[in-house]
Design a protein that fits this description.
Elements lengths: L6 E2 L3 E4 L2 E4 L7 E3 L9 E4 L2 E4 L7 E6 L13 E6 L13 H4 L12 H11 L3 E4 L8 H13 L3 E6 L5 H8 L4 E5 L5 H6 L5 H12 L3 E8 L7 H14 L5 E5 L13 H12 L5 E4 L9 E2 L6 E6 L2 E4 L19
Parallel strand pairs: 8-9, 9-10, 10-11, 11-12, 12-13, 13-14
Antiparallel strand pairs: 1-6, 2-3, 3-4, 5-6, 7-8, 15-16, 16-17
Helix pairs in contact: 2-3, 4-6
Length: 333
């Protein structure tokens, strides 16, 4: 196991009496002994170091559907690693205890080799970087993903997408699938989360163009990001890339600093119906109902994969090819 919190970071420049981190759009200028907004990268001796390198907040074996990824090896298990830190500050964060946590307090630190050993021991072929924002633990994710790829494993990034182009392109060489949290389609909402919209849209475009399997999640919070006009613009953006990108509409529940009531069924169904006019694959998460969790053929509407929670039932032996009409669907198996 690795216990070092002095891992020299990538993507930074010396500037004046500090260092400029250029990993994400914040471009934090960090003085000696200080840390960036993510609380995971700091200035030590005039160099940028990763405070969170190898720090582990959680290790779990999850259904890949929990990421959520519904079109990437459906029904499979993934070994999920979480660390500490986030470069956004959403008031409704579901995992605030680790996103705002202190990596230095971690009782467990794993090297990339340790992580790979866990996966091999459990005979799991999918590795997910998730729970907190994995971009803030960039060096560990990059090294682990590269090692995993050499062993024939598939790497999954669950991210807010707030990363600069150069480090993202480097990471794309080792990531096979990603779920990006597209929080809203207005900059004011993102500013309230401590960021901005355009870098996230750029991330989505790059992942799509680099042929990383891509799915998107949009947490619906009424009166915050549920405007029909705004939502239609988001759907226009997604469908402009491809109408086959799966979209997960997620039901909000009160969390962290947000006490607003949970999203109504009426709003979720209304936005689902709007999405389905332009997108082939749309789902509602945190919501009871097989109809809204199952995958249907883009051509004939036949149920390819039936889901109830994390229970997955293949209705076709090969769900990529519809057993009713023969159409090829955007599913990696």
């Amino acid at each position: 196991m690795s216990t070092s919190d002095n891992k020299t970071a990538l993507f930074w420049e010396a500037e004046g009496n500090g260092v400029r981190c250029v990993l994400c759009p914040h471009r934090c200028l960090i003085k000696e002994g200080g840390y960036g907004l993510c609380n995971a990268r700091g200035n030590k001796g005039g160099a940028l170091v990763s405070k969170s390198y190898g720090s582990v907040s959680a290790i779990n074996i999850d259904p890949v559907e929990k990421k959520p990824l519904f079109h990437f090896y459906p029904g499979s298990k993934t070994l999920s690693f979480g660390s500490f830190g986030c470069n956004l500050s959403c008031g409704f964060c579901q995992n605030y205890s680790i996103s705002a946590g202190n990596p230095a307090s971690a009782e467990v630190r794993l090297s990339p080799e340790d992580a790979l050993y866990f996966a091999l021991e459990k005979n799991i072929k999918l590795i997910s970087y998730t729970y907190n924002e994995p971009v803030t633990n960039y060096e560990w994710v990059l090294e682990t993903a590269e090692l995993a790829g050499k062993k024939g494993m598939q790497n999954i990034l669950v991210t807010n997408g707030y990363i600069n182009e150069e480090p993202l392109l480097k990471l794309c060489d080792f990531i096979e699938a990603a779920n990006v949290d597209l929080k809203a389609f207005n900059d004011t909402f993102y500013k309230n989360c401590g960021g901005s919209l355009s870098p996230v849209l750029k991330t989505i475009e790059i992942l799509y163009k680099k042929k990383v399997h891509l799915e998107l999640t949009n947490l619906i919070i009424e009166d915050e990001n549920s405007s029909e006009d705004e939502f239609k613009k988001m759907i226009d953006f997604i469908s402009g890339l491809s109408d086959e990108i799966p979209l997960h509409l997620s039901r909000y529940f009160p969390a962290y600093k947000f006490t607003k009531p949970q999203t109504s069924e009426e709003t979720l169904k209304k936005l689902y119906d709007i999405s389905r006019k332009r997108l082939k694959y749309v789902y509602i998460g945190n919501f009871d109902g097989v109809k809204y969790e199952s995958t249907y053929c883009k051509k004939c509407g036949f149920c390819l994969i039936e889901r109830s929670g994390y229970q997955v039932k293949m209705k076709c032996k090969n769900p990529q090819l519809c057993c009713n009409c023969g159409a090829k669907n955007n599913i990696t198996i």
